[in-house]
User: What shape does this take?
Amino acid sequence: MAQETLLKGRVLSFTASPFEGEPEDAVRIDEAVLLSGGTIAAVGNHDALRAAHPQADLVDHGERLILAGFVDAHVHYPQTAMIASWGKRLIDWLNSYTFPEEMKFASPDYAAEIAGRYLDLTAAHGTTTMCSFCTIHPESVEAFFAAAQARGQRVVAGKTCMDRNAPEGLRDTAQTAYEQSRALLQRWHGLDRISYAITPRFSPTSTPEQLEAMGALWSENPDCLMQTHLSEQTDEIEWVRGLFPDARDYLDTYESFGLLGGNGLYGHAIHLEPRERDRLREVGGALVHCPTSNTFIGSGLFDMAGLMAEGQRIGLATDTGGGSSFSMLRTMAAAYEIGQLRGVPLHSAQLLWLATVGSAHALRMGHLIGNIAPGMEADLVVLDLASTPAISQRSDMASDLWEAVFPTIMMGDDRAVTEVWIGGRRKVF
Ligand code: GUN
Ligand code: ZN
Assistant: This one.
């Protein structure tokens, strides 16, 4: 029989979307969750679960919050070492900092070192699944998947394809992008907890021929996700207009090459035209909000309330290393701040939902990860709601759970993460 573990604490799960109806009504709090091997076996009353499973190991987390591990729906693991690079906006930032760092991933040893470093850092921050861009080097994908596989971790990633407007050494071609992506996809997609995402970086760094080749690969493998960037900065949008004079808008540079679909992930999506919003909603593509990146690189204010109200599918992400943090807590705080600048404060339940269920749905994995329910995968994070003196002096005054949680969302970091479970394996920090 599989090893059973009973975790006692305040087990938070979602029974509905907190963006529909009262946010607090979407949440359920239980006393305990039972893990069996790599799966969540039961959630409920502690005494009853204990009586029914007397052999289970018991871990008592007291007042701590137990929730699904965070899901980060858009990252660049190769940008780990250059996070927090000063003073540039998107295009200059890519040329000055990002591309030189990504060049280093021609070395399998460097790729393996950074993949391991990235997965260790993010686990310590409570992130159990992420969807990552790699570099143009197949070695960078191999290194990331191998590191995730060794950790039993559910991840999505793909080779970042670029065949123009990038330096020598960081360019492939339409043909090699197709062939290398297909070989990686065939080798890794569906192996253990690994999924492949077809990954054209963004339309400025792909020729129409390359976008067409990526669209063909996607049509041959429609169950794969496809990830890219969309309408992040106004300068970028102008550039796209010049490069694709016949396109109706930025989204059309993907749509016309078969790169718009329900399994598509469109990072940033800040400055959208009405037609783009309509088409994204019609096909059910996911928009990925990257708030620390949007303030750090100076991109703009994502319209969370408007996009949610019109029924878009939205995930939350760090966008490491354009984003300035590995922490999904810090990312929720930034989403709250952007909401405030837009005049709509997000409730803690909405922020936690975006970082778990919302991102899992964006990745089309809402049935596997992102929530605590019987049959789902055992990826969990345990949060101390009094992890620093500054936080505890505020949460001490809280009159309910939500007031106790919000200081950790706004001021918390990896110090709030006391335990993480990945695929039923416990990591202790
Ligand atoms: N657009 C194209 N590439 C990137 C990237 O690496 N980071 C961000 N934030 N935007 C991009
Ligand atoms: Zn990105």
Q: What stands out?
A: The pocket of zinc ion (ligand 2) is lined by residues 74, 76, 229, 267, 319, 322 (CB under 6 Å).
